[in-house]
């Protein structure tokens, strides 16, 4: 997946992004979270709540992880993390312990089982999310565009999102997200029209489970069995493909 239509929001923003690579911000966030032994997130429903120090809050905002929560407590800063963001910080970056409602620490198996119980599609959604994040793309919810995620080259304050990503799992059974989205021409055309109307490219991520059975999978070993195939789909516009006055092989071209 390559960046082909980067639309920066202002003059000089591309240089700002180059001077502040997302990989550097994530490294700083990892250090800031691990250096505070009391840092932990409370898993509650479909999100996790994190009380952050001012330095941690600044890095979370710069890394575009979570959403700040406005409270009456001026000396505390709270963030709401999505399930994919929570597991990414806990498992991939290994910098965020997770506790349940009774404040007991959760191990990997408990956390995985809890998140799968919230949504059956979580395993494939997390694999797709971590796949994009590992390539240093910024990933946010794409529900407003009828997609699973929207994908940015850098922070959304600097650049518009380039892709609307839909996650499919054609090799999995129906209990874990084996859906039929985009398998009919009308569905595909609708997705392409929506993406075109908001200047985004449709990115389809096919997650293959490669024989993993939902009831038998173990975290994190199951993630190593999953593979992700990227497909960029663009709408074909006949007007742009008609023979015109300039044709290959004519007038010396």
From TrEMBL:
Residues 124-212 form the tRNA intron endonuclease catalytic domain. One of its GO terms (biological process) is tRNA-type intron splice site recognition and cleavage. It catalyses: pretRNA = a 3'-half-tRNA molecule with a 5'-OH end + a 5'-half-tRNA molecule with a 2',3'-cyclic phosphate end + an intron with a 2',3'-cyclic phosphate and a 5'-hydroxyl terminus. SUPFAM superfamilies: tRNA-intron endonuclease catalytic domain-like. Keywords: Endonuclease, Hydrolase, Nuclease. Its EC number is 4.6.1.16. Gene3D superfamilies: 3.40.1350.10. Residues 41-112 form the tRNA intron endonuclease N-terminal domain. GO terms for molecular function: nucleic acid binding; tRNA-intron lyase activity. It is an enzyme of class 4 (lyase). Pfam families: tRNA_int_endo, tRNA_int_endo_N. CDD domains: tRNA-intron_lyase_C. One of its GO terms (cellular component) is tRNA-intron endonuclease complex. The keyword Hydrolase applies. The keyword Hydrolase applies. Belongs to the tRNA-intron endonuclease family. This is tRNA-intron lyase.
């Amino acid at each position: 997946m390559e960046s082909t239509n980067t639309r920066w929001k202002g003059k000089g923003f591309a240089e700002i992004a180059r001077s502040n690579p997302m990989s550097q911000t994530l490294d700083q966030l990892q250090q800031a979270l691990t250096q505070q032994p009391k840092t932990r997130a409370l898993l509650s429903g479909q999100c996790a709540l994190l009380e952050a120090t001012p330095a941690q809050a600044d890095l979370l905002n710069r890394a575009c992880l979570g959403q700040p929560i406005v409270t009456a407590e001026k000396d505390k800063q709270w963030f709401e993390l999505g399930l994919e963001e929570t597991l990414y910080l806990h498992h991939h970056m290994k910098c965020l312990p997770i506790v349940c409602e009774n404040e007991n620490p959760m191990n990997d198996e408990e956390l995985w089982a809890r998140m799968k119980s919230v949504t059956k599609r979580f395993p494939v959604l997390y694999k797709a999310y971590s796949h994009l994040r590992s390539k240093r793309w910024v990933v946010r919810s794409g529900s407003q565009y009828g997609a699973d995620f929207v994908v940015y080259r850098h922070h959304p304050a600097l650049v518009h999102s380039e892709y609307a990503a839909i996650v499919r799992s054609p090799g999995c059974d129906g209990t874990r997200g084996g859906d039929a989205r985009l398998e009919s021409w009308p569905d595909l055309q609708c997705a392409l029209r929506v993406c075109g109307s908001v200047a985004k490219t449709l990115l389809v991520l096919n997650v293959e489970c490669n024989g993993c059975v939902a009831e038998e999978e173990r975290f994190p070993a199951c993630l190593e069995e999953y593979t992700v195939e990227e497909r960029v789909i663009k709408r074909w516009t006949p007007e742009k493909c008609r023979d015109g006055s300039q044709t290959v092989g004519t007038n010396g071209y």
